[in-house]
Design brief:
Blueprint: E1 5-10, H1 14-25, E2 30-34, E3 48-50, H2 54-64, H3 68-74, E4 76-82, E5 92-97, H4 99-111, E6 116-120, E7 123-129, E8 132-138, E9 143-151, E10 160-163, E11 166-169, H5 181-187, E12 193-199, E13 202-204, E14 214-216, E15 239-243, H6 246-253, H7 277-283, E16 291-296, E17 303-307, H8 315-322, E18 333-335, E19 338-344, E20 362-364, H9 374-392, H10 406-417, H11 441-452, H12 457-479, E21 481-482, H13 484-493, E22 503-504, H14 505-509, H15 516-519, H16 526-532, H17 535-546, H18 548-565, H19 583-592, H20 597-601, H21 608-617
Parallel strand pairs: 1-2, 1-9, 2-6, 9-20
Antiparallel strand pairs: 3-5, 4-5, 7-8, 8-9, 10-11, 10-19, 12-19, 13-17, 13-18, 14-15, 15-16, 16-17, 21-22
Length: 620
């Protein structure tokens, strides 16, 4: 009934979809198995993509040739660039999306991708022979064989949904949990844990009074995620902001005795940076109110996502508290919020390729690795898809370094540090965030994606043109000079100090009160800038010129780290034989089996003194 596939992917969430599209584009014969064909790429939580550091990840996926950025652009209903008041390294794109359109577009893309087959059923186990995965077994007892398997099970592994004192099995509300796989993997020697996440109630937008809330519009000129020619939004839907209050908090506190969070029924840790409303009231008891973001679920639906009100309290307590929020006085609830507890596998059990250490050709991607968020899942799916294809094609493993991409930071953190709570990406996790900006993801990664076979020739040509234009703009600002007579009146208009001698335009641009947009108007160079270069490239050139010294310093640090990465370590090295290593270092190094000195230096519990001893032992 089934051929032997190159790659079987279990789960069709954000990780599974990106893995399937990637492996198939590279030439692998792919089978995507999902428990429900109608929920492919479902946005189970908020209808939004991107945000702080997450937006950078989507742009990196796109630059490599992935699909998430394109689907996001084509289903977008609002766009905002966050952190514009901060430095360029902090700028992060974020969108609101049409939930139904997002899922539909992903399914259509996969259906139109050559080499992708589908099968709707639960996978209850993998088939292993001589330490190597060779297929999967389904709930109906079917055996489907393949050269590699990627598990992207999300929150479905032994998932339990909690609403007040009620609890029932499920991977999402209305969907059953996946069973059997965790227990089998444990028998193979894998260690598992429990995590939890939550979601807020969904409500009827027709029952809300938006005039009592603060309107949050999108950017005046909508941006986008993909470096391809997706069309920016011309019209956008607004979100709204309102606040909880003391009465809301008192009602919620009255239900704490029924909360699975506080009575011990939930054992797994939840996301630190996206706490439930119960957590916020308990942890920040001094605060009288908390912000609520009122987010539409799409262009045509009336369903509203109540962001900031994630809860697992009884539904009657949720409803009573909601009615006390300004604008929600006559609210109608579509479905209550809930918490979900599920199995994950600590990612220290993986190689940097996301292949498991215990079973060859078996890969984990997404929430099964302890991450949270669509973007974190999608980028893992991309990397797992590439490496599953490479494994079955006898190609070299593909690994992104921390200085290459946020994707590299995320995977390096997971494998070397592990996580016992849902991992979320932030700009602060990256030591090279000036290099890893959202505007230069294509310059960093598209040549790599083209070499892999993911990014097409058009993408590569666009990058080469962009590189040339950026060089021209920078050369122009460094070579053009102004005399006091030519520029001082203009500087006065822009509240900038006059100059006393002829200076390069670059020095003026580096003044904090001046931007490249200012030079496009009212100067002799305005015509050159306006006619030859697009705004995005001018803005990026400004960043390169203004942050030139910082970029150079960061690049030097990245080069030093690269030297440590070049010192390879054999996988069969016995750390117990190395005298002088601390007991903790021996244990951590034996467990992780780092591939380089650089990776060894980032393992939690391995000190600089241990690295020095290791370098001496290896004769480095």
């Amino acid at each position: 009934m089934f051929p032997v596939y190159d790659v079987i992917i279990v789960g069709a969430g954000h990780a599974g979809c990106e893995a399937a599209a990637t492996a198939a584009t590279l030439g692998s014969k792919v089978l995507l198995i999902t428990m429900n064909m109608n929920t492919i790429a479902q946005m189970s939580c908020n209808p939004a993509m991107g945000g702080v550091a997450k937006g950078q990840i989507i742009r990196e996926i796109d630059a490599l040739g992935g699909q998430t950025g394109i689907v996001t652009d084509e289903s977008m209903i609002q766009f905002r660039m966050l952190n514009r008041s901060k430095g360029a390294a902090m700028w992060s794109p974020r969108s609101q999306n049409d939930r139904m359109r997002f899922a539909e577009l992903w399914r259509l893309k996969l259906e139109n991708t050559t080499n992708v087959d589908f099968w709707q059923e639960m996978v209850k186990g993998i088939i292993v022979e001589k330490g190597k995965v060779i297929g999967v077994q389904t709930g109906m007892g079917l055996e489907i064989f393949s050269k590699s398997v990627i598990l992207t099970n999300g929150t479905f592994l032994n998932g339990i949904i909690h609403i007040g004192e009620k609890q029932f099995g499920g991977g999402r509300t209305g969907e059953k949990a996946a069973t059997g796989l965790t227990e089998q993997l444990q028998k193979f020697g894998f260690v598992s844990g429990r995590m939890k996440t939550g979601t807020p109630p969904r409500v009827d937008g027709r029952s809300l009074h938006f005039d009592k809330m603060e309107e949050q519009k999108g950017d005046q000129e909508a941006g986008k995620f993909s470096f391809t020619h997706t069309t920016p939004l011309e019209t956008q839907r607004s979100c709204f902001i309102t606040y909880t209050n003391r009465k809301v908090h008192d009602i919620l506190r009255g239900g704490f005795q029924y909360s699975p969070m506080f009575n011990g029924r939930i054992q797994g840790l939840g996301p630190r940076y996206c706490p439930s409303i119960e957590d916020k009231i308990e942890r920040f008891s001094e605060r009288d109110r908390h912000q609520i973001f009122v987010e539409p679920e799409g262009w045509n639906t009336v369903e509203i996502y109540v962001n900031g009100f994630s809860t697992s309290l009884p539904e009657d307590v949720q409803y009573k508290a909601l009615k006390e929020i300004p604008g929600f006085e006559k609210v109608k609830m579509f479905r209550p919020g809930y918490a979900i507890e599920y199995d994950y596998f600590p990612p220290t059990q993986l190689h940097l390729t996301l292949e498991t250490k215990l079973i060859r050709n078996l890969f984990f991607a997404g929430q099964i690795n302890g991450t949270t968020g669509y973007e974190e899942a999608a980028c893992q799916g991309l990397i797992a898809g590439i490496n599953a294809h490479h494994t079955t094609s006898n190609k070299e493993p593909f690994i992104l370094k921390r200085s290459d991409a946020y994707i590299g930071v995320l995977i390096d953190d997971l494998i070397n540090k592990g996580t016992d709570e849902p991992y979320r990406m932030f700009t602060s996790r990256a030591e090279f965030r000036i290099l890893l900006r959202q505007d230069n993801a294509d310059l960093r990664l598209t040549k790599i994606g083209h070499k892999l076979g993911l990014a097409n020739n058009t993408r590569l040509e666009n990058v080469l043109t962009k590189e040339n234009n950026l060089e021209e703009i920078q050369h122009f600002f460094k070579s053009q000079k102004f005399t006091p007579e030519e520029i001082n009146n203009w500087l006065s208009v822009h509240s900038s100090s006059p100059i006393k001698e002829k200076i390069p335009l670059e020095r003026l641009l580096k003044r904090p009160e001046l931007s490249i947009k200012d030079f496009k108007i009212g100067t002799k160079i305005s015509e050159v800038l306006s006619n030859q270069f697009i705004d995005d490239q001018l803005l990026q050139a400004e960043t390169l010129l203004k942050y030139e010294t910082y970029i150079e310093k960061e690049q030097l640090l990245a080069n030093k780290m690269e030297q440590l990465e070049s010192h390879h370590i054999n996988s069969d090295l016995d750390y117990n034989k190395i005298k002088g290593l601390s007991a903790e270092a021996r244990q951590k190094l034996e467990n992780t089996k780092p591939s380089s000195i650089g990776q060894a230096s980032r393992i939690s519990g391995v000190s600089p003194a241990d690295i020095a001893i290791l370098l001496v032992y290896l004769g480095k």
